[in-house]
Every structure is written in structure tokens, then in C-alpha cells.
Amino acid sequence: QAQLVESGGGLVQPGGSLRLSCAASGTIFLIYNMGWYRQAPGKQRELVAVITRGGDNHYADSVKGRFTISRDNAKNTVWLQMNSLKPEDTAVYYCNADIQTWQTRNDYWGQGTQVTVSS
Q1: Phi and psi for 89 in degrees, rounded to 5?
Q2: Could you tell me if 19 and 8 are in contact, meaning their C-beta atoms sit under 8 angstroms apart?
Q3: Three state DSSP letters for 75-108
Q4: How many C-beta atoms surround the C-beta of residue 64 within 10 A?
């Protein structure tokens, strides 16, 4: 019914930047909240940032002032601009979206993209 495809992960040095993208496709009628989560080895998945359809956003305290979430409703796409990256930002980053298809409304997840911050 709907799929999320992420891109933009990789290896970056501390202090560097990366931009993650997530595009939703399928028989989509409307997308409500879109967000990014991350999961580091041995840790639980945690919320990084979320953005409403109207553009209101919320960030985890650990990324405030460094990460920026944005979206384009016409393109069904959400981005996460990550600046001043730290080694503790290393994790698999997952895109999440609350999607209303023509049949149902469900929570969808992307496949995950690895972000590694290391010198």
C-alpha cells in the first residue's frame, strides 16, 4: 500500500554534516506526522525528530540546535539535516510516517540507513 525509502547515510567525521531523505510512495491519500528515529547497537530505538503535516516539529534534546527536520507534502518526502555530528549520533536511522492510503491508515517504517560518525 505504501513504502518508505531512505537515502543519505554514510560515514562522516565528527563535526561534519549529512542529509537524510525519505520518500513515501504507493496509494497514498494523506500523510500525517513524519519522523526520524534511530537505534544504536545495544540500545532501544529512540525518537530523533518529528514534523506534522502543518510543519510543527519536535526534537530530542540530544539533537536540538544541530538537526533540522523538514518535509514537502507535495513530494511525500521528509529530510533530516544533521550538522555538527558527534560519535554518539552513530546509529541506524529509520524514517517513520503515519499514512492514510485509500484503504487504511497505518504506521510505516523505512528500511533504515546507517550513519557512522568517526575519525
Answers
A1: -85, -5
A2: yes
A3: CCEEEEEECCCCHHHCEEEEEEEEEEECCCEEEE
A4: 10
Decide: residue 113, CB within 10 A, 0-12 exposed, 13-18 middle, 19+ buried: buried
| Digit-coded pLDDT (tens) for 3-27 | 999 999 999 999 999 999 999 999 9
> What pairs with residue 26 in β-bridges?
2
Q: What residue type is 79 in one-letter code?
A: W
Say yes or no to pLDDT of 102 above 90: no
Nearest to 91 by CA among 59, 58, 117: 117
Which candidate, 14, 13, 15, 22, places its Cα nearest to that of 113?
Answer: 22
